[in-house]
Write a structure and sequence with these properties.
This protein is an alpha/beta fold. The chain folds into two domains: 6-193 and 306-360, NAD(P)-binding Rossmann-like Domain (Rossmann fold), CATH 3.40.50; 198-304, Dihydrodipicolinate Reductase, domain 2 (2-Layer Sandwich), CATH 3.30.360.10. 34% of the residues lie in helices and 19% in strands. The protein has a seven-stranded parallel sheet, with helices on both faces. A four-stranded mixed sheet has the order 8-7-9-10. α1 (15-29) crosses α9 (304-324) and α6 runs parallel beside α8.
Amino acid sequence: MGKKKINVAIAGVGNCASALLQGIEMYKNSPENVIGLMHYDLGGYTPGDINIVAAFDVDKRKVGKPLKEAIFAKPNCTTVFYDNLPDYPVTVQMGPVLDGVSEHMSDYDEDRTFVVADEEPCDVVKVLKESGAEVLINYLPVGSEKAARFYAQACLDARVGFINGMPVFIASDDEWAKKFKEKGIPIIGDDVKSQVGATIVHRTLTKLFENRGVILDRSYQLNFGGNTDFLNMLNHSRLSSKKKSKTQAVQAELKKTLSSENIHIGPSDYVPWLKDNKICFIRMEGRGFGNVPLTLEVKLSVEDSPNSAGVIIDAIRCMKLALDRNIGGILTSISAYTMKSPPVQYTDTEAKEMVEEFIAGRREH
């Protein structure tokens, strides 16, 4: 069993939060069934030690509702793989909307999109302090630049660790990193890299080309799905940070990066009936021995939100270890392991080794 509870707050009670909470309860109640975890025991902490103490959202079907009810409310559509959830003593609080909801979302059916509650935002810093939260996970929609920075600042003010699971550059921004370092508050980011998702598969294949002496000339990664994330990203003005995050994650595996016209990575379309299933197509064109052409194509189909939840469970527990050890600022190893755009890019193999050293106490961060 773990040492003690890890008190966690969530900003954005969407599909990712739903998958995370289902997973926490499933692994807590079925310790013999630990399939799908990268670590069951991490530094003495198990998934069941994660304790949700606060939650923020802006949707009228979630705000003011018990957390147990809110994570299954529309427009959430991820697979329900474990429904035996406790009656959490947590009511979803109204967060600030800011730029969290794109205008085009109002053109779609309520069952598919966000419906903003007619409520005044709560005092997020006060809620974080009173709840006893040690860590806040940012699960806001892509493009929520102002809202993401609001929650980052709230963590600084409330002295709460910050896990930035979406593509707004905070951990990888020198100014923000300095703020967390100066206050001695740990931060992990940016933009969660799913367990076996499009980014890590594309990175692995890119590294394979490099390791085997194949020159990669051009590549694309096309993604589509039916959850609110893909609907939100139909507004291409919200996509610049997402495309940058995904692209640099792949480029980091190349000694010589590709020109912008020879690499295209990013969300492509919204297909409602896919719900939380994500489809990814990767194509890589290169040259091998004798300058002879080589082409590789891959299709990945995966439930998007559980794919990210397994990674976040490790990020939460590594942050708790940092808090236990009084380590503040960027947590370099777990950021490289779990995020697309960490402050410092390492290969996935290097990052895994660094995380194991951090867990064992042989590496500070």
